[in-house]
């Protein structure tokens, strides 16, 4: 069953974008601030900061870390995701610590549509190849 609170929090941020150059979008910076990461620049990798902010707003478990793959240690491991579950991807190499995290929207033809932050430098829905998925998690209410 979808977690409406996760979707409502995430969807409220659709269209929030980084600001190129020396200025920062205060909306992106709030993801870092709210979670106690300090006022980092909006060009710092922020997909996990966004997910932590969403989880905080939805009152569900959160990783508390800026590393996207830290979400592999949170929630209930699931094989078949539903709307509002968390998707964790590898980046560059399956064995790398680098990754991406977002909210599962749907799967179609080998692609996973994910709502997340820092996707093309903004909050939006994007498709990622299913073969890059490291895991799915269902977050528990606090």
Keyword list:
globular; 6-stranded antiparallel sheet; alpha+beta; endopeptidase fold (from Nostoc punctiforme); 142 residues
Number of strands: 6
- SSE sequence, one letter per element: HHHEEEEEE
State the major sheet.
Answer: 6 strands, antiparallel
Runs with pLDDT <50, length 5+? none
β-sheet strand percentage: 25-35%
Write down the CATH class.
Alpha Beta
Share in helix:
10-25%
Report on this structure.
- The protein has 142 residues and is α+β, with helices and mostly antiparallel strands.
- It has a single domain, classed as endopeptidase domain like (from Nostoc punctiforme) (endopeptidase fold (from Nostoc punctiforme), Alpha-Beta Complex).
- The chain has 3 helices and 6 strands; from the N terminus they run H-H-H-E-E-E-E-E-E.
- The protein has helices at 4-11, 26-34, 47-58, and strands spanning 76-78, 86-90, 99-108, 111-119, 122-129, 133-138.
- Strand 4 (111-119) and strand 5 (122-129) form a beta hairpin.
- Helix 1 (4-11) packs across helix 3 and helix 2 packs across helix 3 (47-58).
- The longest helix has 12 residues, at 47-58.
């Amino acid at each position: 069953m979808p977690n409406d609170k996760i979707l409502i929090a995430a969807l409220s941020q659709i269209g929030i974008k980084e600001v190129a150059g020396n200025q920062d979008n205060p909306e992106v910076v709030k993801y870092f601030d709210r979670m106690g990461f300090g006022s980092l620049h909006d060009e710092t990798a922020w997909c996990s900061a966004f997910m932590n902010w969403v989880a905080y707003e939805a009152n569900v478990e959160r990783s508390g870390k800026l590393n996207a793959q830290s979400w592999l240690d949170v929630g209930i491991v699931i094989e078949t995701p539903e709307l509002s579950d968390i998707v964790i991807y590898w980046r560059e190499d399956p064995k790398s610590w680098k990754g991406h995290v977002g909210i599962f929207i749907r799967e179609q033809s080998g692609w996973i549509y994910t709502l997340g932050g820092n996707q093309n430098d903004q909050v939006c829905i994007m498709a990622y190849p299913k073969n890059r998925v490291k895991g799915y998690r269902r977050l528990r209410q606090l």
